[in-house]
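FORM 12-B: Structure-to-Sequence Request
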């Protein structure tokens, strides 16, 4: 079984809103002990729990998964950074475009099926990959204009797919909420 990771963003957002764990529990309907375990990485939340917490905090589920990461060479002087070849940057751009090509056709089906967990996971992967690719491209000199255009074109594929995923997230979340509301009304 995969070990859960602490949800530092949940803690940060909760504290930013001035809420204690009990305050968030009261606002979300999620047990305080569950919130504590999620924040400490002792428990992985399911999609329903993430939705309750995000609704109570007034954020999207994706906000619990930060889109930025520390620089790959944090704190090092540029002249001490490892030399990156333009071929590596080009290869990473191709890989990003391939991810978009492979997952692109699946996006519509996953959205129709309301697979919020898949969308959140893909959004996080794409955001992280975009940060890495950006770091590569900022630290290499491409050999010629043709290569630069190719790499830019490939990066645009990745960015366009990421935008599609980000647009789908709120629609799927809203559909899930409607389904939950309708189910509750039928139960009454």
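FORM 12-B RESPONSE
SEQUENCE OUT:
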């Amino acid at each position: 079984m995969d070990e859960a990771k602490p949800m530092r963003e949940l803690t940060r957002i909760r504290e930013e809103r001035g809420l204690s764990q009990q305050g968030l529990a009261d606002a979300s309907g999620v047990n305080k002990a569950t919130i504590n375990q999620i924040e400490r990485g002792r428990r992985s939340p399911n999609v329903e729990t993430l939705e309750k917490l995000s609704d109570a905090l007034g954020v999207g589920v994706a906000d619990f998964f930060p889109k930025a990461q520390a620089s790959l060479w944090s704190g090092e002087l540029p002249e001490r950074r490892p030399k990156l070849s333009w071929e590596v940057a080009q290869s990473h751009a191709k890989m990003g475009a391939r991810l978009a090509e492979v997952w692109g056709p699946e996006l519509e089906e996953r959205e129709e099926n309301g697979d919020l967990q898949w969308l959140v996971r893909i959004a996080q992967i794409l955001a992280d990959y975009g940060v890495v690719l950006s770091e590569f491209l900022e630290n290499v000199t491409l050999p010629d204009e043709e290569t630069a255009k190719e790499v830019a074109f490939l990066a645009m594929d990745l960015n366009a797919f990421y935008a599609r995923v980000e647009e789908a997230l709120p629609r799927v979340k809203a559909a899930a909420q409607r389904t939950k509301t309708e189910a509750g009304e039928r139960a009454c």
